[in-house]
Design a protein that fits this description.
The protein is an alpha/beta fold. The protein has 15 helices and 16 strands. The strands form three sheets. Strands 2, 3, 4, 5, 10, 14, 15 and 16 form an eight-stranded mixed β-sheet that branches. Strands 1, 6, 7, 8 and 9 form a five-stranded antiparallel β-sheet that branches.
């Protein structure tokens, strides 16, 4: 996910709707207000407090109203952010070279296919390999079919899979639990309550449950009071689910994140939770629910630990730039450059810079390849 530019950081809670960001149009505001009413009802039914993970689940995935489940434009320059496949064909072609030997009898299953750009790029290189997408959003399914008519949509994970699971920027959109260190030194889960005009943060009344506490125990003692970060049990559960279904083949994950020691270092006292709206990066996760993407960095240590515990082997892990260079970028670049016009060559060079430079996506994004049942 690459914001086109940084914009105004909205403030929470007072004055959020009056920030210097361009106001959403009346139809978009009405859409958000409808979702807000549903969230308020959920909070009231739960006794006045829900976890942030539950809020994030509704804001992103409420049927017909959540950010990914409604019809607004999300990807590309006209949307809220740009992902690597929207930059050009480089990532897709490198992935096609990487995945082809492991496609097996079932082919490739992309989990959350975005705009369909990645599917189209890989299918162009590997037209003989079956390409499937598991996508909960009807609107995105339509975009994916328009972009790649050969794609086959699945409604749920298959019971067994011989081939490849592919997920580009999926983990960062999974609902996270937010944890904060209190003045008494304890860790509490931060949830969402309502006030007169908006949503607000509030700590849970009970101590942090063990599934959230255990991943933080090696790090929490060094945190200052007020330190806030995230835990994502949904991601580890998802990894176990994929591992149970993969009989032979690979899982390839691409996302922005770090290993646990960097993820939970004391200097990152604000955590990584953020929102995107029209290429503006926002700190306020309650800004117009349903109109903004919510995202957090991925703790790759937790993902790798869950993968190994579920019976997978780590075949490769490292930053995106190194993955591209060691998996065929020079050959892919030469092939694209030979057919490019001067304008296309300029765009190609810019794409490679964004994908590989440390200050762009090259170091911020990680690639993790997991394997199961590899031939001897």
């Amino acid at each position: 996910m690459q914001p086109k530019r940084n914009g105004v950081v909205t403030q929470s809670p007072a004055g959020r709707k009056a920030s210097t960001l361009p106001a959403p149009d009346p139809a978009a505001q009405a859409h958000s207000l409808t979702l807000q009413a549903e969230i308020r009802a959920r909070i009231a039914a739960a006794g006045g407090w829900i976890s942030f993970a539950e809020y994030m689940e509704m804001a992103l995935y409420a049927p017909g109203k959540g950010y990914y489940m409604a019809g607004q434009r999300r990807f590309g320059p006209a949307g809220d952010f740009v992902t690597a496949p929207e930059l050009g064909a480089v990532l897709g072609r490198v992935l096609a070279r990487t995945l082809a030997p492991h496609a097996g009898r079932d082919g490739i299953l992309e989990l959350g296919g975005g705009s369909g750009a990645l599917a189209a790029q890989i299918h162009e290189v590997l037209p003989q390999v079956p390409y499937h997408i598991l996508e909960p959003s009807p609107d995105l399914q339509a975009q994916q079919r328009a972009r790649c008519p050969a794609v086959q949509h699945l409604q749920r994970l298959p019971a067994e899979w011989h081939g490849v699971f592919l997920a580009n920027e999926v983990l960062d959109a999974m609902p996270v639990a937010v944890v904060e260190k209190m003045a008494d030194g304890t860790l509490r889960e931060m949830g969402v309550v309502t006030d007169a005009n908006d949503f607000a943060w509030a700590p849970a009344s009970q101590p942090l449950p063990r599934p959230l506490l255990e991943p933080l125990q090696p790090y929490g003692a060094k945190w200052p009071v007020g330190y806030r970060s995230e835990v994502c049990p949904a991601a580890t559960a998802w990894m176990h689910s994929l591992a149970a279904r993969l009989q032979q083949g690979r899982i390839l994950l691409i996302d922005y994140g770090q290993e646990a020691a960097a993820y939970y270092q004391p200097q990152r006292y604000l955590g990584s939770l953020r929102a995107y709206h029209r290429h503006h990066l926002l700190e306020d996760p309650f800004y117009w629910p349903g109109l903004c993407d919510l995202t957090a960095d991925v703790n790759f240590s937790a993902i790798m630990a869950a993968a190994v515990a579920a019976g997978l082997q780590i075949a490769w892990y490292g930053p995106l730039a190194r993955f591209l260079v060691t998996h065929g970028l020079p050959e892919v670049y030469a092939g694209l450059e030979a057919q490019a016009s001067p304008e296309q060559r300029l765009a190609l060079n810019n794409e490679v810079k964004i994908l590989t430079l440390p200050q762009e996506m090259g170091e911020r994004f990680q690639v993790l390849i997991l394997e199961k049942g590899a031939p001897a």
